[in-house]
Amino acid sequence: MNRLVAVVGPTSVGKSKLALYLAQAFDGEIVSADSRQVYRYMDIGTAKPTPQEQASVPHHLIDILEPDEDFSLAQYQQLAYKAIKDINKRQKLALLVGGSGLYVWSVLEGWEIPAIAPDPKFRRRLEAKAARGEEEELYQELARLDPAAAQKIDPRNVRRTIRALEVHRNAQAPISKLQGKAAPLLNTVIIGLTAERPELYRRIDSRVDEMIKQGLVDEVKQLLDRGYDAGLPAMSGIGYKQITMYLKGELTLADAVQQTKFETHRLARHQYSWFRLKDVRIGWFDIQKDKEAKILARLKKDYQEQA
């Protein structure tokens, strides 16, 4: 039987750590559902699994792109399905792990994604607007044209906003109307990790401080030195944008760090709109109360009942 375990939840809650534990217990492999970990050279700011962690458990869809390469949701979904199929074919357990709701649900729900080719000229024009600080205007335009799509997109996620506008322009229809669903034939269990907000914010702030200690500033500087433009979608990620502003003299390091923390808090709140605590499909566990062994036992029980 084709099995898939999805580990979801907000940033910094411990999804990767749990996934490694479960993968080792079930002889599984991890399929990343992180929209930033696909890029090479972006390790610290994306909290990418370490080389040691990747050596202990096979990981898929990490370090597959240069930071200036285009990457669509349709491409991600296709690669994720291919990886999951290959893992199951080898009689191993596939674990889909990440906080990108768009990526996770496109796989779990089998979204039929519009086959609308990129429009480079239109996209560059909108990216130039965003670079001038007009992100909010772009998002409001999307909200006017396709309220349903806008509701699912983080207002600061310029890349997704532009793509939705691009699809609307070239398909002459809202992207939300073009996306059907055809759930794949997978025996899926969804595990959600959560924490009370003060604890989650504490973990986020600690992670950001650790990223600075590990060399996030140097990582961003090296990306810029390699010629990757600050306006690239990959470079607009939280942390990368703020450290770039610091390197340009637009922020102090202390302000860049504080902004990164606040923006990550906001991201965590937004992620709960994708992974709702009332969603009966998700088995939620509080990281302050539920130990890894309890989650493992629950997962074994779920699969025994489905066998």
Polypeptide structure, described:
This protein is an alpha/beta fold. It has two domains: 3-113 and 181-306, Rossmann fold (3-Layer(aba) Sandwich), CATH 3.40.50; 120-178, Histone, subunit A, CATH 1.10.20. The protein contains 14 helices and eight strands. The chain has helices at residues 15-26, 51-56, 73-89, 101-108, 120-131, 135-145, 147-152, 158-171, 175-178, 197-214, 216-225, 240-247, 253-274, 292-306, and strands spanning 3-8, 28-32, 59-60, 93-97, 111-112, 180-181, 187-194, 282-286. The strands form two sheets. A six-stranded parallel β-sheet has the order 3-2-4-1-7-8, sandwiched between helices. Helix 2 links the parallel strand 2 (28-32) and strand 3. Helix 3 packs across helix 4 (101-108) and helix 5 (120-131) runs antiparallel to helix 8. It starts with a strand and ends with a helix.
